[in-house]
Amino acid sequence: MLPYLLIVGAVVQTVLPINSFGDEPSTIKSWLGRQILTPGQTLAETQNYVEGRLPPFPMATKVSDWEQHAARIRQDVLDRVVFRGEAAAWRDAAGKVEWFDTIEGGPGYHIKKLRYEALPGLWVPALLYVPEKLEGKVPVVMNVNGHDQNGKAAKYKQIRCINLAKRGMVVLNPEWLGMGQLSGDGYRHSRMNQLDLCGTSGLAPFYLAMKRGLDVLLAHENADPERVAVSGLSGGGWQTITISSLDTRVKLCNPVAGYSSFRTRVRNFSDLGDSEQTPCDLGTVADYEHLTAILAPRPALLTYNVKDDCCFAAAHALPPLLDAARPVFRLYGKELSLRPHVNHHPGTHNFDIENREAFYRMVGDFFYSDKKDFDSQEIACENEVKTKEQLHVELPADNDSFHTLAKKLAKSLPRSPDCPDGESAAAKWRKDRQARLAELVHAKQFQVVAEEVGIEEKDGVECTFWRLKLDGTWTVPVTQLTPNEPKGTVIVMSDEGRKATVPQVEAALKAGNRVLAVDPFYLGESKINQRDYLFALLVATVGDRSLGLQASQVAAIARWFRLFDKTSPTLMAIGPRSSVIALVAANLETERIGQLALKNKLASLSDVIEKNMSFEQAPELFCFGLLEEFEINQLIKMAAPRTIQAN
Q1: How far, in Å, CA of 402 to CA of 203, rounded?
Q2: Torsion sign (Cα): 591, 595, 599, 600
Q3: Of 503, 505, 504, 459, nearest to 480 (Cα)?
Q4: For position 637, which CATH number holds?
Q5: For residues 572 and 599, what is the distance between their CA atoms, to the nearest angstrom?
Q6: Domains in the chain: how many in total?
Q7: What is the mean pLDDT of residues 50-61?
Q8: Does the global pTM surpass 0.85?
Q9: Which helix (H) or strand (E) element contains residue 547?
Q10: What is the domain range of residue 321?
């Protein structure tokens, strides 16, 4: 059933500014470049959309009730976010560990070099700091690192490892994907979305790298399973909250300037995280407020910096996390186990001595509570810090990365059957596949409210400017150009926005067609002007898909236009991104979209991987699981019997 549609607004003459496209821009060029949306409108709509879809925080008045919530949250995140697709098999694979030489550390400890498999074929280099004298069970600590190209050789991280080892703890210093020895192009964090495209969680390698690190630590004969800690700065802080909340083997954690809630990030652009920090669908089951609360009753030190020059400044990032988690710790009678620490000196993005000593105190209070002489003052050890070369661990020449893993997965994709022979069988196949496509891209049946915000006429062409409000949530700008007695209608969109469609629009008008030039979400005027792809990640984390929103918007525009013309318009898409949007839209709306004209179309979804594209280049092309079930040639066959012109 088609939605009910409503047209509102009055004719307004020349009320919108003309963008400059040269000294004497053509009329068509001026019209297509006319600003229709209010400044920042798409950004504001995206912020409101994301906020309205974040999961509520569960309430509990008893420990038993909260523990049910916590168990459900953990299981949902692991099952519905982390271990999707091939990642379920990676989780069950036996992790290998290979040991190399032992090097001299400093007084009281030595360093063992090792590498371990996060998943089959992807090895993580690491260092194990081991005290010289070990008796009985001792605490173990995993020090993860963040966005520092020095990786495991980062000075502040080495000093932390050394200080803990000198205090009698076994400490693992693993490399992080994308940093240090794993800093190749295939490990860039925005490459993880190539796995998402294949229907396998791009978050899984990050999580398994942490989990296998804990496995290594706890396999040590002196490891005390009741005294396991994790700490890290920035991306290491994100790793810390992620593994500590989801793996209860962690008994104490110290994330440093590493995360804030999604609600905070929507309004504080410095906190908008990379692909791993905003993974697909996480926001449908948990926010970082939830992950902080499910640490309870285990000790947690939340460290933030007062004038952080990177991200997660204390004033806005810390209070919402404490507000969510404190009542839960109070349920357990463990209010003092949740500790905030705000760093003022230097107060910038750091895990320097003041923050490190706060961590040592935390470890002393909870892991050495019976040791009255435990000293949290840092032990001077700068002369024991090693070079990258000294800490280098041999890796396989063919070590896997996000990119190589995606290439391997893509070889057997898509898995769905191709169009069968016979008209009846083919028709059923198209209907079934179109239904599945709608489900996969999270398609919407938008209702349209149209506001006419300007109208002009010149040289026999009438130009009408529209703001189309979809479900009261999204606004799409449309420039409608109508010649005298139009013969047909063409809807035009482009990767570069409608202002770049001048040649195509002029040709369509010359052929006697009415033209609707549109900018769906993320294209042209509907593109967010700052940190745009990070907002596309937010849309995906709350359970929607940029591709589904775009295609649904285009389909709604085609239905809306039936109020003016009962014929089905041609949909013209210019560019690889727009061509995919158009193909999906045509399969969502089989009655109101006629033939398709695809210019410079994407040849194959597998090209996204073969060309090693990253998420920020084309967010809609990384729709979770799209390549697992569809290819471009299948989308074209599904759109039959309509004519599709492609060049």
Answers
A1: 10
A2: positive
A3: 505
A4: 3.40.50.1820
A5: 8
A6: 2
A7: 96
A8: yes
A9: helix 546-561
A10: 93-410
